[in-house]
Specification:
Helix 7 (188-205) crosses helix 9 (226-246). The protein has an eight-stranded parallel beta sheet. The chain folds into two domains: 72-449 and 485-495, Alpha-Beta Barrel (TIM Barrel); 515-657, Rossmann fold, CATH 3.40.50. It contains 23 helices and 16 strands. Helices cover 45% and strands 10% of the residues.
């Protein structure tokens, strides 16, 4: 009998297995005395070490998706005009999407737009032609979320569909709304009663849920790290578990009513690890509750905070990385932000590209065919476990904020603890963006001040309206009866309840990382004539190219034109008279010296003095070292170099260029 091969890949046995020590010795030779930790070891926003090399890990059994196979391709429906929304919805479904996300007016995710449905007929028109029993539906959390849920249930009833045959995630998330808007419709106990009443009414009709969303997007958009995002979303889910249990739901029923929304960002390693960690942490929460764990229902959305309004085509790359990461990380469904979303309501082309980003990875890359592609990879296993530890710590910290009858997440929002923590994290990331340690391609690096505009839909934001009839107290409303009334044609107002005094909190801001640069670009673009920075090059072209390129890249990131040309070389040095003449002809107020260190030493002071005499404010690209005092005396007022605060430098440059 033949013996079994030594391994599944016997040809690999011909090569010796490299040892970690041998690799480290080779690295030390290349580093030539440089600090290994500083050069090759990274740190995440949560302080987790990111090693340059990991050993293979033994894959452990971990919770996976509850529904194996392809993730669901979702598209957001957020056009305020029903007929236009309907056209976009059908195009999405015919183009490969199998899920629609209904973003009603007021939803944070609608970004000032959103579906307008004053009655079930308007909602029906928006979804005309969409076979609701063949697709999946999800509602984005929004003010009047309970009414939106009842309207959708009424539409299902109006069309004569079996509710248990329609897959709907109703997206009720009052805690997320408090985080986003700063207001609560009522006290927390009353909110719990309303949630329970709505869920019971929907279940009585035959809907199976999920009904509640634990949504991480408000925290992510305010600057949350991966662990902060995990802690907030788990603390939210635990608050809902307790609220429903207090209203008579079993823990199993409460658990099954909850779905999760996480953000897929542009760091593929951390995003994959975060999604894997979320499933592990939710399993641990269930076990702590004495439940037999079930897989979490996990929806993913690509990151709003990473989108740029400048060179938006780069958003296609960001969306692809995020989509890949969410798919590998185990999302059940995913919506990709269209690449023009930061500029306005995306048109059909941008929506198609967003769909196709997913479809290419599903159909051509076949990412869905492996349940957990990261299993056994040392880096992903280490990052997953580290995020579990950090995320659990963040959850415990929030739970420790509980008091005055409020769960930890609500108490932390009401006291401002979360806002303060996220603001601190955002400040750290903003500094990294400003100093370009976190570069943003097309915005802070490689900007294109001549970029062509892209199209978005020209749609006015829906007007806010007041209820047309007196509102009843929530306790006076029968949720099941309201569904029938709405299906029969009653207006939205019939399901609204009179406001009650509830919690208040400082709303979490929604920020994109590129915004500080975009503000400067907008100011420069709005000028009658784009301001110019004169790049005063010293010596031959080979000597000044690197620093001239650095200066041009910096100034154009703020919308300032900074052409350099072939320079003013003469006899191995610089024709200072020609340089000054060119500066005078340029009309610029700011001149930036660019050359080699040798050129700065030989003629930097003379060039600065001549430019200053001609009326220029003179800067210099590079670190001056021992020449600083001499250059300052000659007229150099500022030095720009890699690692400096680009936003601060550009703000000062604007103040000079726009005088």
């Amino acid at each position: 009998m033949n013996s079994a091969p030594a391994s599944d890949l016997p040809f690999m046995d011909a090569f010796p297995a490299p040892a970690q020590e041998a690799w480290r010795a080779a690295v030390e030779k290349v580093l030539k005395g440089a600090d290994f930790e500083k050069k090759l070891v990274g740190r995440t926003a949560d302080g987790i070490r990111v090693e340059p090399l990991y050993e293979a890990a033994a894959p452990a059994l971990r919770p996976l998706r509850g529904e194996p196979g392809r993730w669901h391709v979702a598209a957001r429906l957020d056009h305020p005009e029903p007929r236009e929304a309907q056209k976009l919805a059908l195009a999405d479904l015919e183009g490969g999407a199998d899920s629609l996300i209904l973003s009603f007016a007021g939803a944070r995710a609608a970004r000032g737009h959103g579906l307008v449905a004053d009655d079930v007929a308007a909602l029906d028109a928006s979804l005309d032609g969409a076979m609701l029993d063949l697709i999946r539906l999800r509602i984005d959390p929004a003010p009047q979320g309970r009414v939106n849920a009842l309207l959708l249930a009424a539409l299902v009833e109006k069309r004569g569909l079996a509710p248990d045959g329609v897959a709907v995630d109703f997206g009720l998330d009052p805690i997320g709304l408090l985080a986003s808007t700063g207001t609560f419709a009522a006290s927390w106990p009353e909110i719990g009663r309303r949630l329970a009443a709505t869920i019971r009414a929907l279940r009585a009709r035959g809907f199976t849920g999920p009904f509640i969303a634990a949504d991480a997007r408000p925290y992510h958009e305010a600057g949350a790290s991966e662990a902060q995002e995990l802690g907030a979303v788990l603390a939210t889910a635990i608050a809902y578990l307790r609220a429903l249990q207090a209203e008579g739901f079993s823990l199993e029923e409460a658990r099954d009513a909850i779905s999760f929304v996480l953000v897929a960002d542009t760091d593929e390693f951390l995003t994959i690890a975060k999604f894997r960690a979320a499933r592990l942490l939710w399993q641990r929460v269930q076990e702590a509750c004495g439940l037999s764990p079930k897989p979490m229902v996990l929806h993913a959305e690509t990151a709003w905070r990473s989108l740029t309004g400048r060179d938006p085509w780069v958003n296609l790359l960001r969306g692809t990385i995020a989509t890949f990461s969410a798919g590998v990380g185990g999302a059940d469904s995913l919506v990709v932000q269209p690449f023009t979303a930061a500029l306005g309501l995306p048109d059909a082309f941008a929506r198609r590209i967003a769909r196709n980003t997913q479809l290419v990875l599903l159909e051509e890359a076949n990412l869905w065919r492996v349940a957990d592609p990261a299993a056994g990879a040392g880096s992903f296993e280490a990052l997953t476990l580290a995020l579990c530890e950090k995320g659990w710590g963040a959850l415990q910290g929030l739970e420790g904020e509980a008091g005055n009858g409020l769960p930890g997440i609500l108490s932390a929002l009401a006291s401002g603890a979360i806002q303060s923590s996220l603001a601190g994290q955002h400040a750290l990331r903003s500094k990294a963006v400003a100093t370009r340690r976190e570069p943003i391609t097309g915005t802070s690096e490689f900007p294109n001040i001549k970029e062509a505009s892209v199209s978005v839909l020209d749609v006015a934001a829906p007007a806010r309206r007041k209820p047309a009839q007196p509102l009843r107290k929530a306790s006076e409303q029968d949720q099941g009866k309201l569904i029938g009334e709405l299906a029969a044609g009653a207006p939205r107002d019939a399901a609204l309840s009179a406001p009650e005094d509830g919690l208040h909190a400082e709303p979490l801001p929604s920020r994109r990382l590129a915004e500080p640069f975009e503000v400067l670009r907008d100011q420069a673009d709005a000028a009658a004539q784009r301001p110019v920075v004169f790049v005063a090059t010293l010596g031959p072209i080979a000597d000044f190219t690197a620093r001239a390129g650095f200066a041009r890249n910096l100034f154009e990131a703020g919308g300032l034109s900074a052409p350099s040309g072939d320079g003013f070389a003469k006899n191995g040095g610089t024709d200072v008279a020609a340089l000054v003449a060119a500066y005078t002809a340029s009309g610029a107020r700011l001149a930036c010296l660019c050359g080699s260190d040798a050129a700065y030493a030989a003629e930097g002071a003379a060039a600065a003095r001549a430019l200053s005499t001609a009326g220029a404010t003179v800067w210099l690209a590079g670190r001056p070292g021992e020449l600083e005092a001499e250059l300052n005396k000659a007229g150099v007022t500022s030095f720009i170099s890699a690692g400096g605060d680009a936003i601060e430098a550009l703000t000062r440059a604007h103040a000079i260029a726009f005088v």
